[in-house]
Amino acid sequence: MMSQFKSIEFRNGMFRYLDQTKLPLKEKYIETDDYERIALAIERLEVRGAPAIGISAAYAIALGMKNVTDNYKVSFKKIYDRLAATRPTAVNLFWALDEMENYFSTLNSYENLYGLLLSQAKNIHDDDINKCDKIGENGLEIFNKESVVLTHCNTGRLATGGEGTALSIIKKGFENGKVKFVYSDETRPLLQGSRLTAFELSKSGIPFAINTDSAAAMLMSQNKIDIVITGADRIAVNGDSANKIGTYNLAVLCNYHKIPFYIAAPTSTIDKSCKDGSSINIEERNKSEVTNVNGVKVTRDDYNVYSPAFDVTPNELITGIITEESLHKPPYNF
Ligand code: MRU
Question: Among 15, 22, 199, 299, whose CB has the most other CB atoms within 10 angstroms?
């Protein structure tokens, strides 16, 4: 199945991305060769999703170093630090930055530095495209009948360099007659489900409905869901998995209703320095994302807000974790 859009790409010396804050009502592409603009795009969620953030940061490093003519190491560190400060939870960001830094540190000369860093960023991008395809193939074995799937947030072309993680499995499953319908959690507060996953499912011709996050329990109690698949932003060695806020709720609901709950992610989402989920840094976002909907105020500014962007699902609630390597079953030990 061919999808019709590229959410991130590098062409004609520019980083080009689809502004996800405008979707699905407007398909607006932004082109830039300024690393600071890419950092802002990541902070504002114009570009988002763990693997896509990492790839974008890798291109930003190359662009940031393009016109540097001396003090290379100092400039590299400044650009690295700026990008590393954009979002804290998705480890793919730090993984990609470290891949770029490790490569930079092996260079004996800075001749053609921009070209070398750019090809390293393209390698990271190509690698993710391949990983997405393999995740899709490895995920096929989780279906034992033509299934109705529920998913949360967005894990497709908009979130990765390729077809996606959980959404790659859903698309492959649909192509192979193993998925017949998808429920997309709307994913409050930023609506990645009702805006972005709906956009992708619609483009792929997969039948779907958007449901409010709080409708998931009722759907499950009515036997309408066969399987739940989500992505992850950081997976600890013991399998505890951080993903978009509300994922943990789904895993608890699946456990109660005896529905399999799967996580899909590339191995670049595994953080070997996190033994378990307690050491994962959870981003808290600006309260205006909760007090406003689409720029319109819906409650008072002087009310306190608690708005973690991610939660951690304990490994014992996860039926399996699908990576580009294989379907991993518990007990997890990455
Ligand atoms: O805040 P976001 O939209 O960047 O959060 C994204 C998610 O939580 C995704 O599920 C995760 O990054 C996996 S993307 C393949």
Answer: 15
- Rounded average pLDDT over 166-193: 98
Residue type at 103? Y
Could you identify the residue written with the tokens 């390597």? 325
Cα 91 to averaged position of ligand 1 atoms, centre (Å)? 11
Residue 180, C-beta contacts closer than 8 angstroms, at least 6 positions apart: 146, 147, 148, 174, 207
R_g of the chain, CA atoms, integer Å: 19
- Does residue 76 contact residue 101 with C-beta atoms inside 8 Å? yes
pLDDT greater than 90 at residue 4: no
Backbone torsions φ then ψ of 16, nearest 5 degrees: -120, 130
Probe residue for ligand 1, chosen from 233, 249, 290, 313 as the CB with the greatest number of ligand atoms within 8 Å: 233
Concatenated DSSP letters of 140-193: GGG-SSSEEEEE-S--STTTSSSS-SHHHHHHHHHHTTSEEEEEEE--TTTTII
Q: Which atom of ligand 1 is nearest to the CA of 164?
A: 15
CA gap 42, 186 in Å, rounded? 21
> Looking at the predicted structure, is the pLDDT value of residue 2 above 70?
no
The ranges assigned to domains in the chain are 8-133, 137-328
* Ligand 1 mean position, distance from CA 107 (Å): 33
| Cis peptide, bond prior to residue 189, ω within 30 of zero | yes
pTM, rounded to two decimals: 0.97
Name all residues whose Cβ lies below 6 A of ligand 1. 45, 48-51, 90, 153, 155, 159-160, 164-165, 192, 230-233, 243-244, 309
SS3 137: helix
CATH of 8-133, one of 3.40.50.300, 3.90.226.10, 1.20.120.420, 1.25.40.10: 1.20.120.420
The reported pLDDT for the residue numbered 294 is 85
Q: How far is the CA of 90 from the centre of ligand 1 (A)?
A: 8
- Measuring from atom 8 of ligand 1, which residue has the nearest CA? 244
Chain centroid to CA 297: 28
Ligand 1 closest atom vs CA 50: 12
